[in-house]
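Memo to structure team: turn this sequence into structure tokens by end of day. - J.P.
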Amino acid sequence: MDKADELIKQLLADYKGPEDLIGTNGLMKRLTKKLVEGAMGAEMTHHLGYEKHGTAGEGAANARNGTSPKTLKGDFGQVQIDVPRDRDGSFEPKIVAKHQRRFTGFDDKILSMYARGMSTREIQGHLAEIYAIEVSPTLISEVTDAVIEEVKLWQNRPLENLYPILFLDALMVKMRHEGRVENRAVYVAIGIDLEGQKDVLGLWTSANEGSKFWLQVLTDLRNRGVKDVFVACVDGLKGFPQAIESVFPQAQVQLCIVHLTRASLNYVSWKERKAVAQDLKAIYRAETVETAEHELNTFSKKWDARYPTISSLWKRHWERVIPFFAYPAEIRRIVYTTNAVESLNMSLRKIIKTRGSFPSEEAALKLLFLALRNVVDRWEIVQHWKAALSRFTILWEDRILAAQQR
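Reply from structure team:
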């Protein structure tokens, strides 16, 4: 048995239950106090250049000057430590810095709970119940507010020159604006880079979703370095394609088939929704544009007597429906729907649904940023990306090379 094992055996000699280890006066707290105070004592010795009570310190310009009490919060709960002082006040402890009241990692726990949609009161209760720590609402606000600067840096960070695929969508969030609570649109952009990695490029808010504001979003992306987009996947918002093409003139705009299908089914009775959905699937699952047009005409003959608006809707948007027919299955699976951004929005809605409303736009963005950071960390390379990139390279190798040379 080595010395460490022997020491652990001695420390646990009187152990009778969990309270002896992690209780209010348990071994963990006492060990934490001793280890932290011992480390700070060693730091003070290094700072002064001589051991405590050592003769080398006699007549020295600076000397130890007692201790000051400090309460620290951490996974172990709360513990009071004695921080050594020196006479001229030049000692700066490193293990527990001046003004530090929480161990490294404790703030991350608050942020983690906040990112999962827990309210300030719920975070307070959780910390009190699990760690026996009393945390004020002010402290929680201070910890979460520190994220705002990170949000600003993230929102203004430089982006890639080229995103082969860009997904654009918006979700509605209740927040207080100019003294009243209102539904405001939060715009979300997801890009897939040349490596096949998805990334959220930014979050923006406005009173409602509109093509004019999307133009501002797209201009912001361009100002941050995006020079080219191959395919932009969007919903059927009026003027949206024109806004994209004004900023990225070479981009192909692909209408989200899922959005279009949902809009179509809004006109259908519940009894017939399944049958209509199946016939619509025959259109967008067709192998070629010609076959798709044939299926659309077939659909029109079958359903126009009952639901004439549906075929009219598809025909009106047809030029934005068909771009993905030019691609093989690998690319179609990626671009025919904005599922990538809708999946993210669904995750964000789960987080914000318990909030009711946010006191400000800043508070909403703070939570959304923390929540999406957790989601993005789990994202993997897009499936079948190598095959998709090969096709893009055949079609637009010059644009890829131009992006790589910038």
